[in-house]
Every structure is written in structure tokens, then in C-alpha cells.
Amino acid sequence: MPLERDLEDVIEAEPDVLGEPVLLIGRQVPTAHGGFVDLLAVDEEGGLRVLELKRDRGAREVIAQALDYASWAATLSHTQILKLFADYRGGDTTFEAAFEERFGTSAPEELNAAHRVTIVAARLDEATERIVGYLADLGVPVNAVSFHYYEDDDRRYLARTWLRDEAESVPAPRVGKSATREPWNGIDWYSAMGEEDGTRSWDDARRFGFISAGGGKWYSQGLRRPRPGQRINLHIPKLGYVGIGEVCGEPTRFAEAVLGDGTVRLAEQQLVGRYRHTGDENDPDVAEYVLPVRWLKTVDRAEAVWDRGMFALQLPICRLTNATTLAILNNRFFPESVTP
Question: pTM for this one?
Fold first, then answer.
């Protein structure tokens, strides 16, 4: 690697040379102010990384340009970041799937809550070290890294040296007005139904039309958030999504729940789940609560819908904002509505 410009190719091909995992989302990314960011990436926390190569430019020029690019990148919304990734990868995979493959965990709901700037060089001159060090001492999230190339017979080596300890660098909090989360469509909710301890069962929920939560006020109070006519996307942890339905009533305690045409008292049915918790069942903070749902489409556990990168959390209820997950669910549950 005799030329400094080759560093961009090396980092794109093998981002791990930076010393920490990042997911590249763009190369030579055009900004809104006429410049081009050499490399743009996100880290495991969803923070944005602006990587600018020095390429034998003066310290003042490259640092000023990097900070200019960072001021633009700091305003990128969740949706804009997903579009940049889609443009960069050409649609060969989703951001969520690539994130999970890269980091071994689901993509965070919030992207670009913070950002960092990295100056990349074959060598760091005194002026670059001085200016970057000064800015870092002031709290600016900037660092510099140099790479040294060695050959030993038929072996080649690339040695990395950070100007500051990267583990101690503090990313800058987001500035600007763009949303760091994907916008909610105002309709879709996510619900996780845990079956492991026998408290609940998908068989019961599917047959009688409901979701439930309880064992503490924190778990059950969320059932009051969805309104009639909004959708529930039900997920069974470690399996996948098994049902999509419309909310058709208000939550009530299990002991008082009446479903269907208003004559089916849930507590009097032969059920698989217990729907009871340790403690006084008369205590409204402990009781299991039931939210009536009219299922639009359901599947057996063996046919649960799950793809890499889909949204999943151990939460009784929350807004489902992940556009990739919603698109997959629509394609799999309602293929007849998908435009060819």
C-alpha cells in the first residue's frame, strides 16, 4: 500500500482495520453543501462515524473539511441514513439485516443520536496532531489515526496508531432538528407474547381474539395505549411474528374480560395459559389484563415470520416504527395486497 489514497479502499474492504466494528453506509457521500464525505459509517450504538482521509492535504484544510462534513452528518435523520445505506449497497440487503450480521444484535431504534469524526492518514504531521489534540481537549468528538505499511518477505502488515485513546473519546450529542427515530405511521403497534412460563398461550389468544400482559403495572399499563382500529403485530420471542389484528376494545382485567359478541367470558373458558401471577389477583397492579383484538391474519408457531434484522424486543407493547419489519410483515401476511 504505497499510496495514501489506497487507505480508502482498504478501510472499505476491511473496516475492522479501524480497531472497532463499524458498518459502512456510504463512500464519497455528497453533502448538502457541495462536499463529499470519504467514508460514512455507524457504530454498534447507532452513532455516526465520519471518516475523512488526509491525502497529503494541509492540516487546517482536512480538519476544517472534516468538521464541515460532520456538521452536515449530525443533522441526518433516521430515514435519511437508511436511504444512504440503500443507495450505497444497491438494495442487496436491508440496513437492519446488515447491522445484525455486522454486530450480532438488532439495529437500535435510534440512529445518529451522537457522532464522531476521524482523520485517517498514512502519517500524522505535527500540525494535525496539535490541532486535533486541541479540539479533542475542548470536547470536540474528533480523533486521528495513522496507518503504517510494512513488508517482510512475502508478508505484508498494516499497523494502526491512534492519536488519542479511541475508547476514551466521547461522541458529540446530536444537533439539529431531524428525527433520530423512524417516524411512526400512527397505526401499527408491536406486542411480544412470552409463553415460556405458561402464563399465556398463543393458542388462547388466537382462538378468542386478544393479547394480554400483567404481573406488574409497568407491563399492563401499555395496553391502554393502542386505540380501536389500530393494528397489533404479535411476536413470540425466539419464534417470530404470528398474527396481525385490529384492536377492537379497551383493556380489562382477565377475570372480567368478555370477548367475541359480548357473551364469551374468558375466565370461564378452557384455556392453555394461566393468566395469573403470584400475589393478590384483586390487586389491579398485579392482575393480567386483556386487550381485545380482531385477528386479520394468523399463522401457526411453525410458520412464524422471521427474517434477519426484523424488530424484536421483550416488551408487552410499543409502537412499531421499523419500516423494514412492516414491509416484511405486509409481504408475508398479505401477499395479495403487494404490488408486483
Answer: 0.74
